[in-house]
Design goal:
Length: 295
């Protein structure tokens, strides 16, 4: 048997066998050395993706916490003194705020949650959100029983202007004859009167601590202002910031906002338009108006 013939190949056959061996070696090398590294790389990518996702979730969580902290907090407040800006932050519409301001402009007071909704026509959802923070004066939430025997000598007879005494010269004894004014209130009234060098308007009695609107009305029934304090009024539409801050209850920030609003409106047409100024103390408007004029 001639074995030699079985191992003799032509040049073309030898090239094919060599190429086959190279392919086998390449496949083996790829399987043992390259493929495991590729698999490790894929695992690393998967692991990195998981880490990135966890980090993103953590960042989103921190952002949510910061956003929650930045939300304006609601503190207890008297709904009678809601300004335009305060109403906006509470979620009230412009129409609802305007209804409230129009009601207060009549010198009327809101004394219950139900009355607040009747006046503003605010929705139940918004009311449920803000009403827990309503804070009414003690004389509204805890009214004291009327004292039927208090000052039995008090007369309800309507007095003429000539019969009324001058509030700027009234004594403590004379003030105490008014229903609702005792020794402490009469002392506060006289002390405040001396501090401001006499009353210019009865509206200034609101600044005397503890006096309710009802007691102020009783004082007006017995007293008048025959010698009102002179006030130099400031022109609202030309006043500088330095002039505005001389008025009580107006600081530099409010003065800046007044001038900014005045520029936008090309001048105020009414002093009552100050209620549209951001941060303006609406509840002090009547007192502030005493020091202003329109030219």
């Amino acid at each position: 048997m001639n074995l030699k013939s079985h191992f003799q190949f032509s040049k073309q056959q030898r090239s094919g066998i060599f190429l086959l061996l190279l392919i086998i070696l390449f496949v083996q090398g790829f399987y043992h050395f390259v493929l495991p590294k590729l698999l490790d790389t894929d695992l690393d990518f998967a692991s990195n993706d998981a880490n990135v996702s966890a980090l993103i979730k953590q960042i989103d969580s921190l952002k949510a916490i910061q956003l929650e902290k930045r939300k304006p907090k609601i503190y207890p407040f008297n709904p009678n003194f809601i300004t335009d800006y305060k109403g906006y932050t509470l979620g009230l519409s412009n129409q609802e705020i305007d209804r409230l301001l129009a009601f207060r402009k009549q010198d009327k007071w809101i004394n219950s949650v139900k009355q607040f909704q009747e006046i503003t026509m605010v929705s139940d959802s918004v009311l449920d959100k803000i009403s827990p923070y309503f804070k009414f004066p003690d004389w509204v939430t805890n009214p004291k029983p009327k004292q039927t025997n208090f000052k039995t000598g008090y007369s309800k007879t309507v007095k003429t202007e000539a019969q009324k005494l001058d509030l700027n010269s009234a004594t403590a004894i004379q003030l105490q004859k008014v229903y609702g004014v005792g020794p402490s209130y009469s002392e506060r009234i006289i002390k405040f009167r001396n501090k401001i060098n006499g009353f210019h308007s009865f509206i200034e009695l609101q600044q005397v601590y503890g006096l309710t609107p009802e007691v102020i009305q009783n004082i007006k029934a017995d007293f008048t202002l025959k010698t009102p304090r002179a006030i130099t009024k400031i022109a609202l539409n030309t006043a500088t910031k330095e002039q505005l801050v001389t008025i009580k209850y107006i600081d530099y920030e409010i003065a800046h906002n007044i001038i900014e609003e005045r520029t936008l409106r090309d001048g105020f047409k009414s002093i009552d338009e100050l209620t549209k100024v951001n941060g303006f103390p609406v509840n002090k408007l009547e007192i502030i108006k005493l020091s202003l004029r329109l030219d």
